[in-house]
Each structure stands twice: as C-alpha cells, then as structure tokens.
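Practice problem 4.
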C-alpha cells in the first residue's frame, strides 16, 4: 500500500474549505468574519478560487493538527461526557430590520468553559486583541460566562481567562461594519497576510 500524507492532507483541507463556502447562506456571518477586514468577507464570495487555494499552507496546516492533538488530549483526560470539540453554535441578530445568523465553531467546551486554541510562532504581545474578541463573541454566542484562550508557541504555553461576553450592541456594530465595508482594513497588519491583497483597492502595504 502506497500513499502520500501530503496529498491526503491537501484533499482534506480543500474539501473542508469548499464545504464551508458552498454551505454558507447569504445572511450567514461566521464569527471569524466579524474579526477581520469586512472586504475579506466580500472577496471570499467573489473570488472563491482564491479562498480555496489559501486554505492549504504549511503554517495553517500545522496549527490545525496541533488543534486536533490538544482537543483529543482534553477528551482523553476529562472524558467525552465533559468535553465537546468542534461545537457549532448560531444565533439570530436583527440589524436594521434584516435577519442575520452569526455562526461559530468552538474548538473545545470543557464543562461550562469555552476553550479557544491558538498557535503562534512568537509569544510577543499576546493575547492579541482579535483573539480576545473572538472568545468574547463565543461567550455571547453560547451564553457561557468563562473563556480560556490558550496559545501554543515555541517559547511557552500561555493561558488567558476571559469572562466578559460581547454585548448585543457590539455584535450589531460589527455586522454593520461588514455591510458597510468599513473600516478596511480593520487592522493595519492585515494586508500583509491577506490572500486577496493583490486585488484589493484598499491595500495599505
């Protein structure tokens, strides 16, 4: 029996990305959409081939595999009764008389705790604001009151507890930001890592 692990991983990542793009409804907004440049949300629909191509890279793949390893470790440690992994939640939000569905896939829920796993090449300046915001949105989405943001870096494993959910007003403002396409970019560093930067009229760097 012969096989190539790289090809298996490639097919898995591309198929996952394809399913997410195809299944996403017009009024659905993922939590990750709320965190970054609103133009990226538009470009994912407009330039699907780029979205698929950017789904496979050694860095993102390594992070995904580390996620899976820690998730499995937590299940084996605490048991499947206490630990749920890759849990999907959704919540309806009305903005200016229009209905939007905010959807999120949470890495791990241990008891009443939301656990978000991040991998990073450096532990400088952590926790990053958009990661904290992501956990806060997950708390809003689930109704749980305690989040644990975990960083796996070459230097250390760092943990940060977050206990303030995002408010309804914050979520509405973020959705309005996506609708308006402003601010673009949301963070000054985004363009350096954006797959759509070569097509974007708002590229800053």
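Answer key:
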């Amino acid at each position: 029996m012969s096989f190539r692990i790289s090809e298996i991983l490639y097919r898995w990542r591309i198929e996952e990305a394809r399913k997410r793009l195809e299944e996403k409804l017009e009024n659905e907004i993922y939590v990750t959409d709320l965190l970054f440049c609103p133009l990226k949300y538009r470009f994912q629909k407009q330039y699907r081939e780029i979205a698929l191509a950017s789904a496979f890279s050694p860095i993102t793949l390594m992070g995904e595999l580390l996620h899976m390893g820690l998730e499995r470790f937590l299940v084996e440690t605490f048991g499947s009764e206490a630990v749920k992994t890759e849990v999907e939640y959704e919540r309806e939000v009305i903005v200016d008389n229009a209905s939007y569905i905010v959807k999120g896939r949470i890495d791990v829920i241990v008891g009443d705790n939301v656990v978000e796993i991040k991998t990073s090449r450096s532990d400088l300046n952590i926790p990053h604001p958009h990661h904290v915001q992501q956990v806060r949105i997950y708390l809003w989405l689930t109704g749980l009151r305690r989040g644990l943001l975990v960083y796996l870096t070459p230097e250390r494993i760092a943990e940060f507890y977050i206990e303030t959910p995002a408010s309804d007003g914050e979520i509405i403002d973020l959705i309005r930001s996506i609708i308006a396409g402003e601010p673009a970019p949301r963070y000054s560093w985004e363009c350096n890592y954006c797959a759509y930067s070569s097509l974007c009229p708002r590229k800053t760097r």
